[in-house]
Amino acid sequence: MNRSPTSTNRLPTTPSPLDSRSRALRRAIVRVVEASRRGHIGSAFSLVEILRVLYDDILRYDPSRPRWPDRDRCVFSKGHGCLALYVILAEKGFFPAHELTRFCQDDGILGGHPEYGKIPGVEASTGSLGHGLSLAIGMALGARQAHAGHRVFAVISDGECNEGATWEAALCASKHRLSNLTAVLDYNQQQSYSTTHEVLELDPLADKWSAFGWEVREADGHDVNQLQLALRPVPFHPEKPSLLICHTIKGKGVSFVENNLKWHHKSKISDMEVRALLAELEG
Questions:
Q1: Which of 15, 26, 232, 236 would bridge 215 by S-S if both were Cys, CB 3.0 to 4.6 A apart?
Q2: Helices and strands (H, E) in the chain, number of each type
């Protein structure tokens, strides 16, 4: 859904219901957590539809050749939400599904944040928030200088927009007119210990990015159709970087996880909690 920036950054939408595929992806995330007993569940749940649409419909890649030169690059800057990324990458065949059961284990490849060079399909080591967009800009500049046709995407978080490095990167991208760069912002309006409005107010978020020289659109981040319609036309402008603000709910899909800061990260998830999560996601 294409929209011009507004002064409030609030989309007047009703909560999007989850289809069977979205529920299945969240159940897969829970199964990873069941094996590891830890993870950023709320952060992963808010990302599911964003990553689903990117890897189902938008990105060009070949799982059998993770370093295929003509692939689109997707920098997953919101590294702590990696459970959603890992489930998608395994589903697409970048690595065997059994690796999911070894998340955060000594004999596995999947750590608490994505690691470049160790996990096929991961384009950059991320998790130190605020740096992914700068990495993506370097890739976009490199692609332009090489006259390459691939595009660069960066999945970023609203909490990262607290950081000066993000805004410096935003200025750099617009200066260089990086139309081959698209940032997708997971705007669930929560951080690790409070709301973004209490920690550091971001609104009017779309207006800020527009003022920094980006072409901005907004969508319901859990509505697959809206996301497809919004992302298929990128770039939004032939001489500007593109930003899609995705309005999401942290913990989307499970009532007792949604907007519950206690589920930002869990390190000792119980059998009872796993059963409760799966029960709600059976739908």
A1: 236
A2: 10, 5
Residues 227, 51: Cα–Cα separation, whole Å = 10
Q: What type of residue is 120?
A: P
In 104-256, which ranges are E strands?
152-157, 181-187, 215-220, 242-247
Report the SS3 class of residue 279. Answer: helix
- Sequence length of the chain is 283
Dihedral sign of CA atoms 185, 74, 138, 142 in order: negative
The residues spanned by each domain of the chain are 20-281
Options 3.40.50.970, 3.30.420.40, 3.40.50.620, 3.40.50.720; CATH of 20-281: 3.40.50.970
3-state SS of 167-215 is HHHHHHHHHCCCCCEEEEEEECCECCCCEHHHHCCCCCHHHHHHHCCCE
Per-residue pLDDT of the chain (283 residues), as tens digits, is 333 333 334 454 566 789 999 999 999 999 999 999 999 999 999 999 999 999 999 999 999 999 999 999 999 999 999 999 999 999 999 999 999 999 999 999 999 999 999 999 999 999 888 999 999 999 999 999 999 999 999 999 999 999 999 999 999 999 999 999 999 999 999 998 899 999 999 999 999 999 999 999 999 999 999 999 999 999 999 999 999 999 999 999 999 999 999 999 999 999 999 999 999 999 6
